[in-house]
Q: What sequence folds into this?
């Protein structure tokens, strides 16, 4: 009797997923999983980055063409770069590093209203040498291109130079990482 019960339980164990799959794909049960939602604010229509030519805080020249063909994580700070700004820059680096094989496809850009001190620039550049920092009056036109720049935020810019999504400065970095991962995964590159 015990062997028969074991056989019946084993049969039920293997048959249960098949029964559930058939029921979920039948007309009898109308169930769909909730669609994944965006964690940020999708911009509709997208906002194109303007043509610009700026000097980074490292003294390098930065043009709009330099930001093409890569996804860009942009951090816009409405004032200077204080300790909270540096912490957010660290989180941006972590979001980029969390993209694994897509890391080379992502650029980091910090746009600050007031030019940061040289030691702050060095600390941010030490986080990730690819971090580009533009600041001050020369960067105002670029900063004003980003919707909600007066409050600051994080932005995802596509390889064509379109601002696609906005996150507040207090946004959960996990949500930014997930949205960026989804965009990178579904993008077909030539």
A:
């Amino acid at each position: 009797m015990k062997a028969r019960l074991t056989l019946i339980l084993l049969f039920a164990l293997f048959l249960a997923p098949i029964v559930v799959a058939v029921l979920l794909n039948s007309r009898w049960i109308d169930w769909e999983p909730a669609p994944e939602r965006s964690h940020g604010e999708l911009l509709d229509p997208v906002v194109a980055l303007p043509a610009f030519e700026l000097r980074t805080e490292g003294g390098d020249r930065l043009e709009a063409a330099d930001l093409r063909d890569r996804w860009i994580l942009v951090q816009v700070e409405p004032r200077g770069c204080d300790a909270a700004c540096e912490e957010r820059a660290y989180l941006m680096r972590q979001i980029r590093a969390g993209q694994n094989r897509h890391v080379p496809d992502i650029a980091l850009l910090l746009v600050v209203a007031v030019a940061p001190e040289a030691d702050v620039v060095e600390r941010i550049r030490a986080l990730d040498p690819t971090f580009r920092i533009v600041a001050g009056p020369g960067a105002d036109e670029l900063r004003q291109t980003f919707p909600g720049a007066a409050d600051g935020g994080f932005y995802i810019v596509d390889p064509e130079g379109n601002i696609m999504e906005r996150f507040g400065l207090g946004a959960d970095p996990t949500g930014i990482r997930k949205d960026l991962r989804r965009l990178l995964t579904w993008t077909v590159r030539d």
About this structure: The chain has five helices and eight strands.
